[in-house]
Design goal:
With 284 residues, the protein is mainly alpha-helical. It has one domain (7-280). The chain is 61% helix and 5% strand. The chain is built from eleven helices and four strands; from the N terminus they run αβααβββαααααααα. It has helices spanning 7-17, 46-61, 70-84, 118-123, 127-142, 145-169, 173-211, 217-229, 235-240, 246-260, 271-280; strands at residues 19-20, 95-99, 106-108, 113-117. A four-stranded mixed β-sheet has the order 1-3-4-2, with helices on both faces. It starts with 6 loop residues before the first helix and ends with a helix.
């Protein structure tokens, strides 16, 4: 696909589909039992992922307040690069940005940009939990979920145009009902594919955590605590959400842990992690 031809529409699509993930062994084990996932269907090249991600990041930077603290920026960048070292596929140039927001949230853009809210850093009780938030987002980037969804949306948009044209030519209520039914099926497909992408990012993120020397269960602990903090999810909300329920996410991470065969001893938090948390809390 020529990125320039549909750049405006794709930029809006990527901003709409940006992955919001809040309310997010070293040295052995059965690595062969848990291979890295592979990216799916995609109309874009990895280089175009980078271009589109940079364009989206520029737009986002105009809408959010970024934490401008060299020590915090450097620490999050180092931690992110440590986790991203084993990311599969194309070697994207990862850039980690801390957003001055109390919301516990993070999201990724195609090509390597990862935005993590200050609230997510403060909510992490251990360095492994923060690494888990970053690992999940890195997995979205490395598996190219953003442009995969944009590719599917582009094809669906084209197909919807054909259906609507036919419905406009056709006579009677049948064609209008058929067009509406097709639109509902497309919406359902994207809901299911978004959930599948989240679970895939959980599994791949847990794998990346283990390879970076963290306990993958830290990611599951963070998800469980976040769900408890939000009071759980009502069943009707779960049905309409593009994120899987917390129990499914914890189960997927547990499967990765079981496939790895063992987990490392729980690593101690770095001194820098504690300092950054204090720094963001306004303690000096």
């Amino acid at each position: 696909m020529r990125a320039g031809k549909v750049k405006g529409w794709l930029l809006l699509t990527l901003l709409a589909l940006q992955t919001a993930c809040g309310g997010a062994l070293s040295g052995g084990g059965n690595q062969a039992a848990m291979p890295h996932a592979s990216a799916g269907f995609n109309l874009f090249s990895p280089e175009q992922d980078i271009q589109l991600g940079e364009a989206s990041a520029e737009e986002i930077m105009r809408q959010v307040v970024v934490v401008r603290d060299e020590r915090t920026e450097a620490y999050v960048q180092r931690l992110g690069e440590r986790v991203a070292a084993a990311a599969p596929g194309y070697r994207f140039p990862y850039k980690f940005v801390v957003v001055a927001s109390p919301e516990v949230n993070a999201f990724a853009l195609p090509g390597g940009y990862v935005f993590v809210n200050e609230g997510a850093i403060k909510a992490a009780r251990t360095e492994g939990e923060l690494a888990g938030v970053l690992a999940h987002e890195i997995a979205h980037v490395s598996l190219r979920h953003g442009t995969t969804q944009a590719s599917r949306a582009y094809l669906a948009r084209t197909a919807m145009g054909v259906v609507n044209t036919v419905a406009g030519v056709g006579q009677g209520d049948f064609w209008r009902v058929a067009a509406a039914a097709f639109g509902a099926r497309v919406n359902g497909f994207f809901l299911r594919s978004n959930r599948a992408a989240e679970l895939q990012a959980d599994a791949e993120g847990a794998h990346l955590l283990a390879e970076a020397g963290f306990d993958p269960r830290d990611m599951a602990n963070f998800f469980e605590r976040l769900n408890e903090r939000e009071g759980g999810r009502e069943s009707e909300d779960a049905a309409a959400s593009d994120h899987p329920d917390p129990a499914s996410r914890v189960e997927v991470i547990g499967q990765v842990v079981a496939a790895l065969g063992r987990t490392p001893a729980h690593p101690r938090d770095s001194e820098e992690f504690r300092r950054i948390k204090s720094r963001l809390s306004g303690l000096r």
